[in-house]
């Protein structure tokens, strides 16, 4: 770092100012790009006739009458996205099938000919207004390829396309982003011709003229495509930016010349070009489900909050934007599974950034008052001065020396460094190891917020079972299990040895399997008694049901001789008002039902702890979740009784 370095942190005690203003280096963002950068997270809404035909790409011959959502609610959709932390939304106003979600004057193939809202509906209006009401930016996706339009492939169509863009940019308030995909030309209905129409991607659309129109009508809107001009496609539909991911890029055509939508060397877009001549940051699009449109069969395949968080680190955390598609269903609502995942993802984000632990800073060093566990570091360059840093190292002070714990290259608009295990330290520093111009760091902050679960814990208790010839029991469960283990052990004294794995992880969390596998590789058991666990709010009931057989598979594989018994999860009562059932109990009941069905099909006996305590509010502790000593005794008595039935009469000698 040189004397020209400027460093600002959110909690900067006294950020040193540069003696002179830095000179911008290389390509720098335009005003509209600078305005766009902080949004970081945008949601995508793929919604059209495909939602009703179960297709991903409509042919263009769909009857507009099939578009008829039964309970469309734009405010509910936007509220769901906001709960996930999204501040911007892009709607597929027209996808490749050509069906327009607004009453356009350019074609009959629109919502005007749908029964929905008596032909007076306008999805673009309702979504844009709901977004406006809730402070969310609104953007549009207008597919250039149109498999319905009879003129597609001829010069007239380009005029029609531009007119559609014009209608959308003039009738629906302020637009933050205009999104052009690169899928262009091929088979289609084309007004009944039903043929293949191939266009010249370089010349057909005359993109510069369309972009001029957008600039004139909505000067603040950024334009997205494979080739920018403002925001580039990251080159994959997985939502993952390269590492590094430079904000500068020179789109080139696959056969030479300049890149255009549908004909750009997009493999280079994943990392961008260091020292590229244009500021053109990456946007990482991905769907929360396998497909872009809603399909019933994908309801159980919604990405989990952990997967979303991982994508966040691999997109936003590398300086790109995450554009996450959450497709409305046939009701015109986001599906419950998608909503649950979004909500939990939003909570994780909030929790993660809640605790900024930097107490004081001396330019490139953060010092904490006491040794502090750090989970996450965020760096930002002042991008108005260009992308200057080529590489950096993060170091902590240990054993009287600076020790490197992370090395990276691009910083740019944002670089997140999540630490798998927290680093407990009282001093960290950022060292710029190479820079094309003196670094201008805008943010260097450390967060203590836990990256994974809010309260993650694992409590394993393994008595030394191998020395004894008693039957071995493993209890797997949550804090309720943790509480009754001791009593179960006392009840079974001389009859069995009891071990325990209790954790905050839900059985819906695939990471639980690792923990179980670790124990089963260490020790063998004759009986495994496991319960639901009431953790894992972030997992939907369907995800839970989909993950549970995975646990059974691990148990069967690693403990093939063990007898299994599943225990239902106990109810939750209202905190400090234990006479009342807490609404959370509804979800517990649902999970219990799902699990019981699976166990019955697999002939696994059930220990119904839920029924044993549900009428006994007097068993509950004041927190509504745990049990008082009487409750713990009652649970332990039942568990012990059930276990005794499964204990082998005679134990075989152990190897
Ligand atoms: C692509 C399209 O072909 C997909 O259907 C989807 O809309 C995706 C976001 O863009 O080009």
Quick structural summary:
This protein is an alpha/beta fold and 655 residues long. Helices cover 27% and strands 22% of the residues.
Itemize the secondary structure elements and their pairings.
Elements (H helix, E strand, L loop, with lengths): L30 H6 L4 E5 L3 H5 L20 H10 L4 E7 L28 H11 L3 E6 L12 H17 L5 E3 L6 E3 L6 E3 L9 H11 L4 E4 L5 E3 L48 E6 L17 H11 L5 E5 L10 H19 L5 E3 L2 E17 L7 E10 L2 E8 L6 E21 L5 E7 L10 E4 L10 E6 L1 H13 L5 E7 L7 H12 L4 E5 L9 H18 L4 E5 L5 E2 L2 E5 L2 H18 L4 E2 L1 H5 L15 H18 L9
Parallel strand pairs: 1-2, 1-10, 2-3, 3-4, 4-7, 7-8, 8-9, 9-10, 18-19, 18-20, 20-21, 21-24
Antiparallel strand pairs: 5-6, 11-12, 12-15, 12-16, 13-14, 13-15, 17-19, 22-23
Helix pairs in contact: 3-4, 3-8, 5-6, 7-8, 9-14, 10-11, 11-12
Bound molecules: beta-L-fucopyranose.
What does this structure look like?
With 655 residues, the protein is an alpha/beta fold. It folds into three domains: 1-20 and 27-36 and 355-451, Sandwich (Jelly Rolls), CATH 2.60.120.260; 41-352, Glycosidases (TIM Barrel, Alpha-Beta Barrel), CATH 3.20.20.80; 458-646, Rossmann fold, CATH 3.40.50.1110. 27% of the residues lie in helices and 22% in strands. It has 14 helices and 24 strands. It has helices at 31-36, 49-53, 74-83, 123-133, 155-171, 207-217, 305-315, 336-354, 479-491, 511-522, 541-558, 584-601, 609-613, 629-646; strands spanning 41-45, 88-94, 137-142, 177-179, 186-188, 195-197, 222-225, 231-233, 282-287, 321-325, 360-362, 365-381, 389-398, 401-408, 415-435, 441-447, 458-461, 472-477, 497-503, 527-531, 563-567, 573-574, 577-581, 606-607. Strands 1-2-3-4-7-8-9-10 form an eight-stranded parallel beta barrel. Strand 2, helix 4 and strand 3 form a beta-alpha-beta unit. Helix 3 crosses helix 4 (123-133). The longest helix has 19 residues, at 336-354. Bound molecules: beta-L-fucopyranose (FUL).
